[in-house]
C-alpha cells in the first residue's frame, strides 16, 4: 500500500505520482487503489480523473502512432471516419462504367474545344469510387478546416485553465496539451463524418465548387451518378455527357488559371481564421462534462453552437467568397451550355444542377454547421447572365482571356453591370485606352498629391542651399578669367 510504505507522503505527492503514471502510459491499469482513494482528501473525484486521463492518454498514444506532434491535431481520425462511411456501401467501378464514362469524356473533350479556348487537360479524366474521392480530397478539407480546429482546441485548453483551481494548476499544467489534442481529435472525427457523408452525394470532382481534387484531375463517381439521375427522367447517356462536359470545364479552368486555386483556398481560410469559439458555451458544458459520455460535445460541434454569430469582417469575407465562386461557376455554366447545345435534355439537366448547388445536400449543410461556411454561390444566375452577355458581345476568346491574370477577372461590379465589362473588352480589342472609372480618378488624385508634396519639398531645399543661388553663377564667371574674384568681399 502506498500509505504504508511512505507514511509521510502528502496528498499532493500522491496526486503528482498519479499524473505521472496516467500520462506516462499506465492509463490507470497499474494504479494502486489506495492511491486513488487518497485523492478524496483533496476534493478530487478519482473516477472522474481517471476517465479524463485515460482519454488524454489514448489521444496522445494515437497521435504518437500516427507520427503527430503531441500538441498538434491528429487528422488520422478524420480519414478513418470518412473512409468508413464512404466504403460502407461503396461499390467498385465496373468495366461497363469505365467504358461509358471514357466515351462520355472523349466526346465532351471535343465539344469543349469548340466552346472555349481554354486548353485541354494533360491527364485523362477518370471514374473513381467514393473512397477514392475521400483519399484525393482530404488534404484540401484538412487545410480548410485547420483554422477552425485550432480555434476549438485552443478554446478547450483555455476553459480547462480557467476551470482549474489555483492550487491545482501546476499539477495539471501538462494536461492542457492533451486537452487540446482531445478537442482537435474530436473535431477531426466530426469533420471526417461530414466528408464521409458528402462522398455519398457528390457526383464529380468539382461538384462542391471549390478545387478539392489534385490540380488538373477531372473525375466522376459512377455510383453517385446513378443516384443523381434516378429521378431526373433523362437518359443516362445525355446525363453522362452533360456532367462530363461540366467536370472537364471546371478542371480545365483551374489548370489554365493557375493562380485561381490558391485564390479560392486563401479566401476560404481567411474566413475560417476569423472564427472564434463561444467559450461561454464551453464553460457551461465543462461544469457538467462527463468524459465517458462525450456526446454533448459532439452535438455542440455538429450543430455549430460553438461558433458564434459572424463578425462584420467575416460577413464581408463570405460575400467576397460567394462572388468568387459564382464567377467561376457562372463561366462553367455558360461554357457547358454552349458545348452541350446538341443535347435535347441539356437545359433540364442544367436547371437540376443549379438547383442542387443552390440548396445543397445534408452533408453540405452539416459542413456549414461544423465550419460555419456555406459553399454555395448565391449569385450564380447573375454571374451566368454576365458571362452569357460577354460571350455574345465579344466571343469566347476575349471572354476566356479574362482568366489570364488575376487583375483581369470580373468582379462583383461586373456581375451587376456586364455592359461596363463589355465596353472595356471592346476598347482593349481595338487598342484603345479603357474608359476611365472611379479608381482611375482616385489614382490620379493620389499621384497629383504626391507630386505636389515632392515639388514643395524641392522648393524648400532650393531656398536653404546658397550654392544653388545666383552667387554661384558669379563664381562661375570668375572661373572664366574675370577680374571679380579679388574684389569679392566674401571671406574665403
Any descriptors?
about 65% helix, disordered C terminus, single chain, two-stranded parallel sheet, 22 helices, mainly alpha, flat, about 500 residues
Structural class: mainly alpha
Percent range for helical residues? Answer: 55-70%
Alpha plus pi helix count: 22
Query: Based on CA inertia axes, which overall geometry fits?
Result: flat
Radius of gyration: 33 Å
User: Ends: how far apart?
Assistant: 103 Å
Q: Please give the number of β-strands.
A: 2
The fraction of residues assigned to DSSP E strands is under 5%
Please tell me about this protein's structure.
It is built from 22 helices and 2 strands. With 492 residues, it is mostly helical. The protein has a two-stranded parallel ribbon with strand order 1-2. The longest helix is centred in the first third of the chain and has 34 residues, at 130-163. Mean pLDDT is 75; it is low at 1-5, 22-31, 39-44, 62-70 and 463-492.
Provide a quick synopsis of the model.
With 492 residues, this protein is mainly alpha-helical.
Helix-strand blueprint:
Layout: H1 2-5, H2 11-26, H3 33-38, H4 46-66, H5 76-88, H6 95-115, E1 126-127, H7 130-163, H8 175-198, E2 219-220, H9 222-229, H10 236-256, H11 258-273, H12 279-286, H13 295-303, H14 312-339, H15 346-359, H16 362-371, H17 380-400, H18 412-416, H19 418-429, H20 438-464, H21 470-479, H22 484-487
Parallel strand pairs: 1-2
Helix pairs in contact: 2-4, 4-8, 5-7, 5-8, 6-10, 6-14, 7-8, 7-11, 7-12, 8-16, 10-11, 10-14, 11-14, 14-17, 17-19
Amino acid at each position: 500500500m502506498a500509505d504504508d510504505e511512505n507514511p509521510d507522503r502528502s496528498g499532493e505527492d500522491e496526486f503528482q505520482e498519479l499524473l505521472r503514471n496516467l500520462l506516462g502510459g499506465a492509463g490507470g491499469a497499474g494504479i494502486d487503489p489506495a492511491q486513488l482513494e487518497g485523492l478524496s482528501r483533496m476534493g478530487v473525484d478519482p473516477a472522474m480523473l481517471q476517465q479524463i486521463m485515460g482519454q488524454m492518454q489514448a489521444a496522445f498514444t494515437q497521435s504518437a502512432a500516427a507520427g503527430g506532434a503531441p500538441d498538434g491535431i491528429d487528422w488520422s481520425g478524420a480519414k478513418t471516419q470518412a473512409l468508413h462511411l464512404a466504403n460502407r456501401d461503396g461499390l467498385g467501378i465496373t468495366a461497363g462504367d469505365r467504358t461509358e464514362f471514357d466515351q462520355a469524356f472523349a466526346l465532351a473533350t471535343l465539344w469543349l474545344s469548340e466552346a472555349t479556348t481554354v486548353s485541354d487537360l494533360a491527364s485523362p479524366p477518370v471514374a473513381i469510387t467514393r473512397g477514392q474521392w475521400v483519399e484525393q480530397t482530404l488534404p484540401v478539407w484538412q487545410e480548410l478546416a485547420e483554422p477552425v480546429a485550432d480555434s476549438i482546441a485552443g478554446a478547450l485548453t483555455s476553459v480547462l485553465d480557467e476551470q482549474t483551481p489555483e492550487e491545482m494548476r501546476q499539477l495539471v499544467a501538462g494536461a492542457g496539451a492533451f486537452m487540446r489534442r482531445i478537442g482537435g481529435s474530436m473535431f477531426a472525427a466530426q469533420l471526417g463524418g461530414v466528408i464521409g457523408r458528402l462522398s455519398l452525394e457528390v457526383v464529380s470532382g468539382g461538384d462542391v465548387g471549390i478545387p478539392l481534387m489534385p490540380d488538373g484531375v477531372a473525375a466522376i463517381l459512377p455510383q453517385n451518378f446513378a443516384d443523381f439521375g434516378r429521378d431526373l427522367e433523362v437518359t443516362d447517356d445525355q446525363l453522362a455527357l452533360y456532367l462530363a462536359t461540366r467536370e472537364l470545364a471546371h478542371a480545365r479552368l483551374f489548370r489554365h488559371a493557375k493562380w485561381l486555386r490558391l485564390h479560392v483556398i486563401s479566401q476560404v481560410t481567411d474566413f475560417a481564421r476569423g472564427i472564434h469559439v463561444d467559450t461561454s458555451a464551453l464553460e457551461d458544458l465543462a461544469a457538467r462534462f462527463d468524459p465517458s459520455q462525450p456526446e454533448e460535445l459532439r452535438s455542440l460541434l455538429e450543430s455549430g453552437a460553438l461558433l458564434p454569430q459572424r463578425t462584420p469582417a467575416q460577413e464581408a469575407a463570405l460575400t467576397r467568397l460567394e462572388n468568387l465562386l459564382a464567377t467561376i461557376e457562372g463561366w462553367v455554366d455558360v461554357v457547358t451550355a454552349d458545348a452541350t447545345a446538341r443535347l435535347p435534355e441539356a437545359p433540364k439537366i442544367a436547371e437540376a444542377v443549379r438547383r442542387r448547388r443552390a440548396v445543397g445536400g445534408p452533408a453540405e449543410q452539416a459542413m456549414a454547421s461544423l465550419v460555419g461556411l456555406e459553399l454555395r454561390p448565391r449569385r450564380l444566375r447573375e454571374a451566368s447572365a454576365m458571362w452569357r452577355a460577354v460571350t455574345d458581345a465579344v466571343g469566347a476568346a476575349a471572354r476566356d482571356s479574362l482568366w489570364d491574370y488575376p487583375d483581369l477577372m470580373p468582379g462583383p461590379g461586373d456581375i451587376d453591370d456586364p455592359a461596363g465589362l463589355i465596353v472595356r473588352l471592346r476598347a482593349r480589342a481595338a487598342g484603345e485606352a479603357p474608359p476611365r472609372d472611379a479608381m482611375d480618378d482616385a489614382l490620379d488624385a493620389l499621384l497629383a498629391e504626391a507630386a505636389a508634396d515632392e515639388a514643395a519639398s524641392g522648393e524648400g531645399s532650393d531656398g536653404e542651399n546658397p550654392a544653388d543661388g545666383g552667387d554661384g553663377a558669379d563664381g562661375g564667371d570668375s572661373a572664366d578669367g574675370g577680374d571679380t574674384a579679388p574684389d569679392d568681399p566674401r571671406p574665403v
